[in-house]
Amino acid sequence: MRTLFFLSLLLFASRAGAQEQVSDQYDAEGHLVASWQMDGQWAWYTGYYADGSVKERGGYFGGKPHGRWQQYDAQGHLVVQGRFDRGRQDGKWSFRNADGAQVIALRYRAGLLLTGERFDDQGELVERRDLR
Q: What global pTM score does this model have?
C-alpha cells in the first residue's frame, strides 16, 4: 500500500511538471523578441529589446492579462507598472520618467478609469481629475 502511494505521488508530480512549457520567439536576425512560460491556464510573458534587455513582462490567465504588468525603457528603467484583473486594468497604474520619478498615476476599477494625477519632475502633484 505504501509503495502504491509513493508511485501515485511520483506519477502525479511528473504529470504536473510536464504541463509547463517554454516558448521563445526570435526576429529575422535571431534576436530573442519574446518568451512565454505556460503552465495550464497561466502564461508568463517577457518581451525583449534587440539588445536582450527586458522591455515588458506580465502574466495571463485564461488568455487574458492578469496580475502585475511592467514595462521598461531601453536603459532598463521601470516606466510603467500596473495590474490587470481578468483582462481589465485594475488598481493603480504608475508611469515614470527615465529618472524614476512618477509623472502620472491612474486608478482603475474593473477596467474603468476612476482618477488621474499628473506630477512635476520633483514629484509634486500638478493636476488631479476625478472621472467617476
A: 0.78
